[in-house]
Batch of 4 targets.
Target 1
Amino acid sequence: MNLLEETKLVLRQHGFSPSRREGQNFLVREEVIRRQVGYAEVGRRDVVLEIGAGIGNLTRYLLEKAGKVIAVEKNPVLIDILRKRLGNRENLVLIQGDAVKVDLPFYDKVVSNIPYSISSPITFRILKRGFKIGVLTYQKEFAERLVACPGMRNYSRLSVAAYYYARVRVLEYLPPGVFYPPPEVTSAIVELLPKKPPFKVNEDLFFEVVRSLFIHRGKTLRSAVIHSPMFPLKEEKKEFIKTLGETLSKKRVFQLTPEELASLTKNLERWKK
């Protein structure tokens, strides 16, 4: 029995119908699972976090390799399936709850096929905590936003935030058919390597500036500042724009490098004083 047939059998035995809205698409190709775990070089000294464990197709293989697996699953029916399918493994910790909100114990690697609906909040939650390596499956469009460079079509505030926290690269793309049920989108396995921030900046202000500006990503920086709520008075905005210089002011927001955005943030911080 292959993994697809086994998955269908497990779901049928428990009377469970996967929900597309909840992102319940289970990876059913063993060779893909093996590559995913291999990318993270999981070994007996590792404590691995898995977000959205589903019915345990990936969990089961992680348990063979890792010292400990912390598997988080929100759905209580799937938690029951995980307990019955995986048994009482000494190196398994099951947590029922929303991975964006629950307390997470220590881990040093993350290997997950995450529900795509929580891609952004869960990614930046784990990046702020730090770990050795993450190998996560995302929707293709989200993955390409993570790795996009200034000037590219997919370059966004997500790209800036990813650059700030980690080195990110797409390892491979996955067609819908490697999941059951098949999603309507192509997926991508992405490697996240947390790093020291590339520049010093007031983080809260920096990400507020990035958020405000990228609402107007196609406008020039000058126009984006004028239309953003960074300053309450129009005349103040005009004076601030003069401090940026003509060249920078004429660049489109999606052309601004993270370093230029950091410089702008520092300039804004000095201006507010």
Target 2
Amino acid sequence: MSEDMIPVGANESFQFNCSKENKCFNECCRDLNQFLTPYDILRLRKNLNISTEEFINKYTTTHMGDESGLPVLTFKVVDNELKCPFVSDEGCTVYGDRPASCRTYPLARAISRNRDTGKITEYFALIKEPHCLGFSCEKKQTPNEWNSDQEIIKYNEMNDLLMELISLKNTTIPGSLDSVSMDIFILGCYNLDRFRDNVVNDDFLAKHNIPADVVDKIKVDDELLLKTGINWVKYELFGMDLNF
């Protein structure tokens, strides 16, 4: 599907609105090849009240990223329309916990990180696809306003941690990981329930002098668990310190 990418400043207004009134409603939920981040999966499996492992097995498929050499999880699509498993005639059935890419659309987001300060700079572009009629609506907002309205800030914060890990991997270990390293990456980033059982509850963190109160928080706080999983992958694959 052809599309145009038009750069837009963080505080520059653009015209767009997505609603059931648009004749294209739900079209963007078809013809999918949708990458899911670890935080996407964390939110979706909580919405469905199932384990991360059950969600991964039931709703996702895994293939290797051409550029990253890392496993990429995408939705298992439904029927010949290649539609999202959670779309209905009335819209998204998991709307409150929809993935970051759904929340961000029609924006694309890229970041750069200052090596000295660690400060992140955001860049945005509008994705204009032929099927989308949202740009003909009158509502105007800036990317910053859109991100706030779509509650994307927390998603970006968590997903930037993954991007930092991927950048570290590509700098340190170009190409594909071996099977053991691949399992470590999937365990620490995606299969968080098993990570909690195999690592957190196995006194691993206590052995590394992580304060007991922090370990207790990790056991019940899924966002902190994900941050811990990413730190653990850095420790296992790149010998970095476990920082909390």
Target 3
Amino acid sequence: MPRFQLTDRVTNMQWNGMDQGSGPTLLLVHGFPLDHTMWAGQIDELADTHRVLAPDLRGFGTSTVTSGTVTMERMADDLACLLDALEIRDPVTFCGLSMGGYVAWQFFRRHPAKVARLILCDTRAQADTDQAAAARRETAERVLVDGPEFLADAMIDKLFAPSTHLDHPERIQATRNTILNTNPDGIAAAARGMAQRPDVTGLLPDIDVPALVLCGRHDAISTVDEMRQIAAVIPAARFVEISAAGHMAPLENPHEVNRAIRSFLDADGG
């Protein structure tokens, strides 16, 4: 798959990721603490009709690492600058999973003219509870001392459906390896940023672009009921439940996810 590497002077950011295909732009934004490789099952298939752009967010993969706190707003602004640097002028379909969904809310809020439609995968609209935010801050401190192995151990079982553990252990191992190879400073900065992200439930009724809300049937982090409620509040949203999948639905069941995305884009002329 064609890789890209780009240095953006506006954000002082070196970007890395995949840029494949031609046509309307589909921007794929990964979750925490992962990188663009989680979208491998989407890039090749969807690039036959779209320009599929899958970058590594700030602090992840081989993109620039910033210590301290990286907010969802900053990641959203980074992506807007990336689109400008690539001279992508037309509005894009923004597809984000989990943390990528948190970034999607802020991208729509801050850069609405750049959004043609939204795809929200296994994510949340509510802010963290005080307890959850404290846990994220504790994770940030610990990863700087102990490295990411404890985080990989803690997250893997929560990310995947039981069937994925049985049928696709290689996908789980690849995800574990990605976490282990992620820079601790990048993990810590994003964890702090997620801990202070705003509640966006009040934004949902104002989303005036078509939206697709996807959720793995066995997602224990962003549950089907919670995501169905998100879809019910967004005026032009459709909800699709993905079978044989947990929180990592695009990686666990790429064919079903791709079918849902393709149907959504075709129906909306995207």
Target 4
Amino acid sequence: MEKIIVDAMGDQCPIPVIKTRNAVSELKEAALVEVEVDNETAVQNVSRFAASKGFSPKAEILGDKRFRITFEASPVSADPEEEISCQPDRRGDTIVVVSSATMGTGNDELGKTLMKGFITAWQRIVSIMHI
């Protein structure tokens, strides 16, 4: 089986996805595709693209800011008009902005109690889900 290496080191989205799409669209027969990137957002977006084509991507960490996504690909036609979707990294720190000390309007004491309950519940969810 032929091996295709896509070097997307230093490229920001959507370039890694576009390079991967172009490599897959040029295949004449099944091949092992290896895409090397330097950020986790690219890992997620290239993996999402490969999965959308029916491939089973596997990602691995090679070192500091060095990742490889590998999948077996068969020839598929690539539509140059196909929209490339790049989503920001959904992992990591979550920021919640609260613009009021109370929840709702009316009774401020009740609003403060509700807000305290909300914040406490959110902290528990975050600690359980590690988000």
